[in-house]
Structures are given as structure tokens and as C-alpha cells.
Amino acid sequence: IAQGSTLFVKQAAAMNLKISDNFKIPPASMASLSAFGTIISVPIYDRIIVPILRKVRGNERGISILGRIGIGLIFLVILMVVAALVENMRLRMPGHETMSVMWLIPQYLILGIGNSFYSIGLQEFFYDQVPDSMRSLGMALYLSVLGIGFFLSSFLIIIVDHVTGKNGKGWIAKDVNSSRLDKFYWMLAVISALNLCLFLFLAKRFTYKTARRKATEIDCSNCDGVD
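-> C-alpha cells emitted (227 positions)
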């Protein structure tokens, strides 16, 4: 998610920003496409997908909270793969700056769609699954996760730049045209895939608070019956 407001913008600034002879798209404004992807996907999910899944699965939510987060993580893996392919294609072009910035639209839209699953799912999780006494801290926990993610992204960029720069041509140079952001994106795709596997491993072993409460109530009723 951190790449949407950092390296993606740097990528856009090195491309052809012209829409017409008299107008250029500001590189940072491309990030608004991710917000557009979220705005479009949220109502589609709530009004179309959830009612269908509710009938098919018999689940009031349509899909579990962790399931929604997992779908978002899948989109984030796809996002980095698409970003790597687009950047590799840009670097292969004779004139890097001649490639239209419109080629970045898919990755920004995927970022927005992934956010509608991942970020909103996280908000629901921290609000719904924390102890009732800590519910007011749920949003703070959600924002802390994103904050840590941005710090880790910056830390990862520093490490990659240091390690790859030893060979004379770093993956993340000041000039994006002499960088290899495509390789960095592929690395992020692998890390995101491993993160998804770890999430699935933990999610299968997670017991929702409502399920724990029901189990406790059943145990208590059995105890009363024995007494």
C-alpha cells in the first residue's frame, strides 16, 4: 500500500503525462485513481456480492472478516505483479518517457479494490474482535498496523538500495530510469505472497469472539445441568 504514494508517483513522473497539447496530469494526482477504485468496489461488494454470498453460504456477512482481509491480500499480490510487468515494459521501451502514464491505471485501480477488502476488513476486525473494554482503541490499532507497514516499507527500501548499490547499479536510484523498480516490485510480490500464506495459516486457527462466547455459554449451561 505504501508504494501507491511513493514509488508509483515516482514512476508516473518519469512517463508521458500529456493528455493533450495543453494539459499534463500531475504525477501525484494518479493516486486519486486508487480512491476511485475503492469508491466503486465498496458499493458493488455491499450491494451485489454480499447478498449473493449471504444466500449461497448462509452467512450474515456474506464472507467472514478474515476472508475479506485475505481477498484484499490476494489483490495486493496481483498489484505488485502488474506493477512489475508495467515497469519492465516501460524500461524496455527505447524512450522511457514516451510511455503513457495511462499504463499505471490498472495498478492504481487494483490498489483501490484491494484496499476496499483489506483496509475495511482490518477496521471491522479491530472493532469487532477486540475485547469490549478496548473497542475504543480499535481504530488506533488499525492505524498502527498501517503506520508500521509504512515504516517497514521505508526500512526495506533502504536495505535494498544498500545491498543492490554495492554492484554499481542499485534497484532504487534517484533517477527512476536507471533504477530497476521492476525487480523491487517482483520482490514485493514474493514477500506479499509469503505474507498471504502466513495469514492463511493463522486465520484458519483463529476463533472469532462470537464463537468463543457461544462456546462458553454452552459449557456453562452444561455445568448447570450437571449441578
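The radius of gyration is 22 Å.
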